Amino acid sequence: MVKYFLSQTDIKSSWEHVFSAFWQRYPNPFSKHVLTEDVVFREVTPDNTLISRRLLTKTNHLPRWAEKIFPSNLSRSVFVIEDSIVDPKNKTLTTFSWNINHTRLMVVEERCVYSMSQEKQAWSLAKREAWISSGVFGFSRAIQEFGLARFKSNQTKAMRGLDYALSILHGDGPSRPLKASAKDAAEKAKETKLAASAKNLASAASPQKSNQFV
Q1: What is the b/e burial string over 165-194, where b = at least 16 CB atoms within 10 angstroms of the residue's CB?
Q2: Contact 114, 128 (CB under 8 A)
Q3: pLDDT for the residue 6
Q4: Dihedrals φ, ψ of 119, to 5°?
Q5: What is the mean predicted confidence (pLDDT) over 182-201?
């Protein structure tokens, strides 16, 4: 079983501005879990399509219930490959990303398409999809629930980070980091609730600590 996530977000900026801000997202005060970003490959094709591959390093803080189950030497960093295709003719920016370590524990695959809004002039649309899977026997459901909650929280931070980059691009960026909104607090509460549910599922699944993922 795979957990699926879908969201569509209107962005009050033109596609050209979103495209520019996308490459200037990090660092920002809302995505402190993103530690590094490196361009591995970049090419402009004969039809002027820009193809890129980047390697991102993100933090991987486990919830307390998971720390009791998985080995203490489990890496606290996640390495993520991000492939992107920029089509200036059709004005689309499509990204594909997936983690390349901890794959026996959990795999998060994401596809995001930034395009022009068909309903609002001079606006853009971000369509984000994600697939969360785990092959850990007895704990897959709990891990997927936690992964989905973490992904929702991080994608909210990602959109706020993009808004932050857009505000700087427009010349009206904040002089200091913005405070989290009530919406962020609600997302955090939801993540905590889902993590608690995952903890209960994990506890019911097995009382023994697994050494499978050392």
Answers
A1: bbeeeeeeeeeeeeeeeeebeebeeebeeb
A2: no
A3: 97
A4: -110, -30
A5: 50
